[in-house]
Design brief:
The chain is of the alpha/beta class and 437 residues long. 25% of the residues lie in helices and 34% in strands. It contains 10 helices and 22 strands. The structure holds S-adenosylmethionine.
Length: 437
Amino acid sequence: MRSSQSLESQDRLSEGESLRLTIEKLVYGGYGLAHHRDKVIMVRFGAPQELVDAQILEDRKDYAEALVKRVVIPSRFRREEPCPYYGVCGGCQLQHMDYDAQVRSKESILLETLERLGRIKEPKLLDSLRSGDEFGYRIRVQFKVKNGKLGFFRWDEKEVVDIDSCPVAHPRINELIGPLKEYARNIKELQEIHVTYSPYEDRFLVKFITPIEIDRDFLNSLREEFLPKEVVGVGDYSRLRGFMNRRFWIGTEYLYMKVGKWTYRVGADSFFQVNWTLWEDFIEAVVRDVEFKKALDLHCGVGFFTIPLSERGNFIEGSDSNGFAINDAQYNAKLNHRDNVVFVKSDAFRHLKSRGGEVLDLVVLDPPRSGLEKNEIELLVKNKPERIIYISCNPSTLARDLRQLLRGGYTLEGIRLVDMFPQTYHIESISYLRVQE
Ligand SMILES: C[S@@+](CC[C@H](N)C(=O)[O-])C[C@H]1O[C@@H](n2cnc3c(N)ncnc32)[C@H](O)[C@@H]1O
């Protein structure tokens, strides 16, 4: 009999090995799921129900990763990818599938994640909110810069892929790539360039991220020489352990965004939803059917949902841990003539705690990818607001948090996919919860 060790070594796959695989379905991360003997293979750039020849990239303990080298029998969802950098650039994972198949796959992944990690039986899927346009939707883009190249990390993150355009970026951001490249040639050690665009104003803000400070006058002269007048503000930043630190700013540091009848001031260091083609529908999907006397919006940003929500009830308080966003939110309340909304700088837990046992009709949550803190969930369950609307950009942490909320006495009335990031694996959603009778 073979020992378990020799069994293991016989089953190991070697890097570069080629396998013929059937892709069963799409899974989170944008991978096609396949099996070789009993081993799970996660296949980059595979589409559901197709036969491919794939090359093993890495064999890990529980699964191996592979890359499609040749499509033998294509999936009926496969299409010619529109971007010339697709398959090399790491920004998109799903361009090889038609848009309808992308949305359907994300719906399945969302439901499966809630069932598997959240132990939620047959969650009710509401109509998905599709992107108004599957291309040209991004108003914020973070370019990487390395060895004279400007673009995005290759899919293995080892190199920067030099690009001249990006189909998911707003067309006006694409027009800026040429001037930014000229500009970048003049700054040593430039690491990243972050661009935000306002379709309402036709204006840009641009951040330059370097390990060493750029001379202020030099930055300004480069800006005048290379960048169009629509770039109304530029900033010099460093990035330390993921955190962005501003050294200085030149010009205006705000853009204004218009969403239906609402206008938002958005500072250079505040968050704003990235897909401009579904802003209005996104707000509508959150505020529809909402009524309240007292509500909290615990990750409010510049008031994207808080301000429209204020029309639906007596009083709403928004809070966010980012002081810049709160300054914008306070400004936005006045700008939109809302006098039943108050904004405070606070992390979500502290804000909820400060409300003690106050009766709340509604709490809106929109945390970062890491989801809710354990103590936030404990307080929510203790305070028991009548309704919770949980907006999430990470199905795994959402499933974990929903499990706790359902155990704590809530019912999930429904969940809606919001396809905020077409062509990529990212999954945004809205969960609607109500306290059990
Ligand atoms: C995905 S954004 C959503 C913002 C806003 N709801 C919107 O739609 O524009 C998440 C927000 O949560 C804030 N945030 C992160 N951690 C937080 C915490 N522990 N407490 C409160 N806010 C937090 C961030 O500053 C950011 O503005």
